[in-house]
Amino acid sequence: MSEAGKTFTPGAGGKGKKQDVASPEQPSQKKKLSKAEKRKLRMEKQKEQKPDANQPDAPSVKQPEKKSDVPQKSKAELKAERRAKQEAERAAKLAQKGEMPSTNQGSTGGQTKPRSEIIKKERPRVSDDIKVDDPSVLKRRAKKLEKQQVPQRIDSEKKVNLFNHLDQFERSISLTKELSFSSGGIHPAIVMLGLQYAEGYICGANSSFLNQCRPKSVSMGNAIKYVKMQISNIPQDKSDTEAKSLLCESIDSYIKKKIYLADDAISNILIGNKKIKDKDVIMIYGCSSLIVRILCDAHEKEEIKFRVIVVDSRPKQEGKEAAKRLIRCGVKCSYVLINSVFYMMPEVTKVLLGAHALLANGYIMSRVGSSLIAMVAKSQNVPVLVCCETYKFSERAQTDSFVTNELGDPDDLVHSNSSVDYLRNWRSIKNLTVLNLVYDVFPPELVSMVVTELGMIPCTSVPVVLRVRNVEG
Amino acid sequence: MPLTALPSDLAERLDQFIRSLKKGELKGSYDVAHQTLLFLRRLISQSRWSTAKDLRERIRLEGKKLISTQPSESAIGNMVRRVLKIIWEEYVSIISGQGVDSGDTQESLQKMLRADVHVDDFSKPCPNLKGRVIESINELLSELEGSADSIATQALEHIHSSEVIMTMGKSRTVEAFLLNAGKSRKFQVIVVESAPSYQGQELAVNLAKKGNIETTVITDSAIYSPSWLDLKAVCGSHALALAAKHYSVPLIVCAPLFKLSPQFLCSEDQEAFNKFESPQNVVDFYESDIHAKVHIHNPVFDYVPPELVTLYISNIGGNAPSYVYRLLRELYHPDDYEI
């Protein structure tokens, strides 16, 4: 583990702190960082969560050493790891110099203010992750990866024109092949996590703790941000172990507060406000752990009698899992593929959708297909409720699904259960490309309301919530 | 006069035809329409009848049988109606000694006043009716055979170069349409794979291989996202149509005239026209835990309301959806809407 620490800290400053950060005794801490590593590792998917996240920190602490360690900083992209490192460094610096007496808990308030000011001043930067079409960006990234001993994934050569700016990877290429265990650059836990992400085993933004750090997801960005902040807020006079335990605690509380309790709260709000009633027919899409949980709560605790229509789509067919969980709870279910949405819609009284992220302009980023359901529901005057914890709120604004998206493995589309496999040799056909989008973005007009742990709000209130969160730190 | 039984070989053929309809051996409405027409021609030439009235009765009777075997296949009913109309036309033209303009079957006030060709008695014997009817049916057959081509030749009027077109599933007509346009124009096609039949994948492979058209396959769920850059969507499901409407993208439906049915349906009437297939395509049977407790629906058809459609392209040209009623008048006799 200390090896992992080393990679983090090429710089001289704040070594002690840094090592704690990556030290093995702190599982959750490790995970957090791993997430950061992970992103680097996978490179691919990461989209930029919040472009401003790195910048506020960097300029806020001006340290000569830092400049020398991080020559790339001048370039647009700072990786999450680097951010974490900077935070750690800064924290250590502060401790050493004792320049801020109030660094301890008090620093929370002190820091947030300047931060928000800085955000305003910062010129928005475009993440490299959506500039894969620029060769210079690719080169830079390759160099960085090499330095950090992260194996690089090979970009697929068959890409859809429109999406040239995004990474397209293929699962067939082993990520770990190049990675020798002695390399020491990456902690094994991180590697494991990375592979899990890469294979898409973990999907959905919060089915477990790890999921909040799903690569390139907005929620992950927010989680990282939170951890960073916590690191910087660690009382400087504490010993390493104390600091570690403090960090763990704060991370645990984040998980608890933002994910578990938020889920509870959302479930209570929905049911408490009688948004699910007897005889309701509720359409859900895919497998959102939150939604399934709300429905199970409504069925088991409140004994509301309703019916659920699970809509599913290829290639992942996560809806099967949702259907299984619901029937285990005893909820009556129907299951259709997304092409039958219109057929089913007349009997539906409510649509419940999960979200991947809520964007600052009120747009909703969700699993691909959600927009379709929202649109059909809207056309049939069926209310669409989006359930979303506030940790998924993002400061990014986006109006289409192209600029930032994830390209799934196109081969996922090939394994169809039909007897005739038309696409088997699609790579050999010159003009044929296969596009497997993972997310889509749809406008607030299609959504009746968003249910968060803060209550039921319209989509357009996202910036307000974000602001409140920033102030609270 | 009660209708006599069909000659045995004809009855056998009818049974065979009904069987193949039931089994779903005929793929696509073109085949169905073609086979129906061939059968009706045989029926006219081989069964015993003396007057136009008998013949119409006979065709109605057998047509009803055919329609009831596969109610969701409107092409059968359409062909039966077309043949009935042909008989009526030929009979009227023979009786009145002049040709009837095919666009003139509608009762108008002026026509009622003039009452020149007002025929409602079909019982007059009419010697050369059979030959003329069969001749007309042959014409209809050749129209049927050429319908995809004649739609395809209009492609260049609707597709310009470097356009992005989205389509869904596989339709012979659309395939011909795009392939024809691809011969002389460069454009891009996005094909929705349309699970669980995956016909979209087949179409995509065909377009890329045969037409060298730049083709992209997407999943059904991804319809919404790329729609805004489509300039045109050709022939699709309701969801695709809605997405097209949402982004103000024109939606063009390619359909030959034999698919034009005088049924009045709206989205609430799903049960009246839809057809369901085995849930196995949706969830494999080995996942029995789902099958045991969950209702799985696998409808085949979708309804696209006319307000979402910009243009219908049929083999006689492009028409707005609001004009369809007029085409119906031209194709079918109003008396035959209900067989």
Radius of gyration of chain A: 23 Å
Q: Biggest interface and its residues per chain?
A: A-B, 56 and 58 residues
Mean pLDDT of chain A: 64
Reading off the top of the CATH hierarchy, the class of the largest domain in chain B is best stated as: Alpha Beta
Can you tell me about this structure?
With 473 residues, chain A is of the alpha/beta class. Chain A has helices spanning 2-8, 15-22, 27-42, 54-60, 64-69, 80-97, 107-121, 135-147, 188-199, 218-233, 240-272, 289-300, 319-329, 341-344, 370-379, 462-472, and strands at residues 281-285, 307-312, 332-337, 350-354, 357-358, 364-367, 384-387, 432-434, 439-442, 449-452, 455-457. Chain A has a 7-stranded mixed β-sheet. In chain A, strands 5-6-9 form a 3-stranded antiparallel β-sheet, with helices on one face. In chain A, strand 5 (357-358) and strand 6 form a beta hairpin. Chain A has 2 domains: 2-259, no CATH class; 273-401 and 437-472, Rossmann fold (3-Layer(aba) Sandwich), CATH 3.40.50. Chain B folds into 2 domains: 8-144, Four Helix Bundle (Hemerythrin (Met), subunit A) (Up-down Bundle), CATH 1.20.120; 152-330, Translation initiation factor eif-2b, domain 2 (Rossmann fold, 3-Layer(aba) Sandwich). In chain B, strands 3-2-1-4-5-7-8 form a 7-stranded mixed β-sheet. Chain B is α/β, with parallel strands linked by helices. Chain B has helices at 8-23, 28-46, 52-69, 74-96, 109-114, 129-152, 155-158, 172-184, 199-211, 238-246, 270-273, 288-293, 324-331, and strands at 164-168, 188-192, 214-218, 232-234, 251-254, 294-297, 311-314, 317-319. Helix content of chain B is 48%, strand content 10%. In chain B, helix 3 runs antiparallel to helix 4. Strand 3 of chain A pairs parallel with strand 6 of chain B.
